[in-house]
Amino acid sequence: GPVLVPVLGDQLSHSLASLRGSEKADTVVLMMEVAEEATYVPHHKQKLVLFLSAMRHFAAELAAEGWRVDYITLDDPANAGSFTGEVARAVERHNPRAIRVVEPGEWRVRAAMEQWADKFPCPVDILPDDRFVASLAEFRDWADGRKALRMEYFYREMRRKTGLLMDGGEPVGGQWNYDHDNREPPKKGLKAPPRPLFAPDAITRDVIAMVEARFPDNFGNLASFHWPVTAAQAQTAADAFFAERLADFGQYQDAMLFGQDDLFHSMLSTSINLGLLDPLDLCRRAESEYREGRAPLNSVEGFIRQLIGWREYVRGFYWLKMPGLAQANELAANRPLPAFWWTGETDMRCLADCVRSTHDNAHAHHIQRLMVLGNFALLAGIRPAEVQEWFLAVYADALEWVELPNVAAMALYADGGMLASKPYAASGAYIDRMSDYCGKCRYKVSAKTGPDACPFNPLYWDFLHRNRPALEANPRIGRIYATWDRMDEGKRADYLATAETFLRELAPANAEK
Ligand code: FAD
Ligand code: DLZ
Ligand code: SF4
């Protein structure tokens, strides 16, 4: 029989290792829409449409190139409902002499895939996913014997390996990292150019109808679906980013403005994570924007660092720390996820705007995820497992390998500081400095305690007080306790009482999705 090549929903790259090593005449490409992937978390409707539509477009492209594609739709009455079940059916149909597949992005799927060799009568070859700069073995070697795994040092290795922004052995401009230039508050009246939107074509409209029919109660809005679903559309999106937004990307990377959901971000994460864009190619293009004088070094270095630094690093971290990372809860946080994370019904204007953007776009930008949503969950002590599930469900770019390290380790400090040297905890002043959220908020960011106080203010101190045994010894945070200890006792009691009142009144989400 032929070689069976299963291609998963985040493997939509024509250069995929399993396709590169195969002969068209001798191969059946298997693509599977399965209930298990559609329901393992309650995905945002746009995320469901994005994956399924992009899969259908990719299958059509492969067929047009002459590949034999066996495509199973979600509403096929014979659908077995899981990758393993569908591969079993395909083995019956095609009697393959071998199965060749690229390793999956998620641990859950890897565990299932490792059973295939025993289940099926033919050999199963699981190939490394070489769409990353660092192999998993390379990351393990780098991590081996290190006490803390700081992204910055790994990033320098990736700069040397790729030669990106290098002048010989030295970093361009003399420094590795220009992040200190990338923390500008937004200027009054700042407005980013709009990004290209991709209207749903017939394939996407079919998927939209299917998702509305099968998942009517999932979170999210489909009227505003306009993600790129093909490599060509993703290139158009990338072109627009390089031409119109890269130059300001660095400066306003941490800025937040009410109702401006994209600002100067690339909005390319969905396309990169699905495999429609090659991250290394994007980095080379960004570098040439710098070399040709069209974008400043801080923007270009920042963009490249997100891709060959953070993105590569969190992937290595995920595979190093799984399966424990999914259960990690170093700070023993035990509060249920609040209902407003789904409804957006809160007087906290920053959070309401972030939940609204998440609902409307299946996207929020990094600082909204980290310093508004993540910071709130950290300070309020929300259960990591519930926060993780929410992030995995609601963002169109969420695959567990990238979501989990960002949520558990970066935002919630649930790993106890392997990734971050201290918790990203901040009071309302940080959000006020970096955004225009606070002016029209029903809470006062300058009020520290009492019913009008910005909840981030008392929650900040409540968090530090509650977690003192775990955090006091941290040299980067210990001195904050000196400030706390110097406050008079009445003030400290007011902080704790204000936090307690706020937390008591937080309605939990229960089973509501
Ligand atoms: P840009 O700001 O334009 O950045 C460029 C690219 O760099 C992104 O497309 C992305 O591929 C990469 N990148 C940037 N930051 C990170 C990071 N911290 N980790 C990995 N890659 C990064 N990113 C995801 O792709 N999927 C997730 O599920 C996800 N969950 C997150 C959860 C939390 C709590 C936090 C703090 C961050 C999360 N991120 C996640 C990282 C980051 O927020 C998104 O990649 C980014 O907002 C995507 O928008 P963009 O393409 O406009 O990014
Ligand atoms: C996210 C997702 C969804 C919603 N549906 C599918 C699907 O039906 N078929 C598929 O191949 N992939 C889907 N995906 C992406 C997978 O969850 C992703 O490829 C794996 O989790 C990676 O290990
Ligand atoms: Fe958010 Fe506090 Fe500002 Fe309101 S005052 S927008 S709750 S940071």
Automatic annotation (TrEMBL):
Q: Which Gene3D superfamilies match?
A: 1.25.40.80, Deoxyribodipyrimidine photolyase-related (1.10.10.1710), DNA Cyclobutane Dipyrimidine Photolyase, subunit A, domain 3 (1.10.579.10), HUPs (3.40.50.620)
**Domain of life (superkingdom):** Bacteria
Fetch the Pfam families from UniProt: DPRP
Q: What is this protein called?
A: Cryptochrome/photolyase family protein
**Organism this protein belongs to:** Alteraurantiacibacter lauratis
